[in-house]
Amino acid sequence: MLVFKSFQLTFDFIGYTFFINAMWIVFALSAALSAAIVVTLSKVGVKHVDSSLAFAIQSVLILIVSWSVVIMQGNLPDVARIDRRVWIYLIIAGVVTCLSSLLSFRALKLGNASQVSPITNFSLVFAVILASVFLKEKISWQVAIGAVLMAAGAVMIAVARE
């Protein structure tokens, strides 16, 4: 099994050396690439199949792979130790994930992947807002401007003429 332990970026800027533990960046970029591949393959998959059926088929594989990873990592016994409150949050998140996927698949069935994907990734803006409101995360001006620029870019791509 391939396991990444650490990845550190080091750079010098005006006489100062900066170190960034960048493992999260590697995983985030890998997730973004995977999501782009999923959009492309799903668009082909929903062409001649009902979008809900296509999602259901993918969901079976998601279940098999995710539980296989849990078992291979030896985390199956941890299921019994999960707090009731955490279960509630995870179940609600699972329901919303299903809803999000069903809506995304339907959007892909009806629209172009190159236009649907930027709009579904508008979730970045919503995530920043929700993190600020509910998780009390501090939003810097750089994050706020970046979110606005990404939102503007998503809208620009979505409304572009072919």
Can you put this structure into words, describing what you see?
The protein has 162 residues and is mainly alpha-helical. It has helices at residues 23-45, 51-72, 84-110, 113-120, 123-134, 141-159, and strands at 8-13, 16-21. A two-stranded antiparallel sheet has the order 1-2. The radius of gyration is 19 Å and the shape is globular. The model has no long low-confidence stretch (mean pLDDT 87).
Radius of gyration: 19 Å
Distance N to C terminus: 43 Å
Strand residues, percent: 5-15%
Helix content: 55-70%
Q: Which descriptors apply to this entry?
A:
single chain, globular, mainly alpha, 162 residues, two-stranded antiparallel sheet, 6 helices
Short description:
This protein has 162 residues and is mainly α. It is built from six helices and two strands.
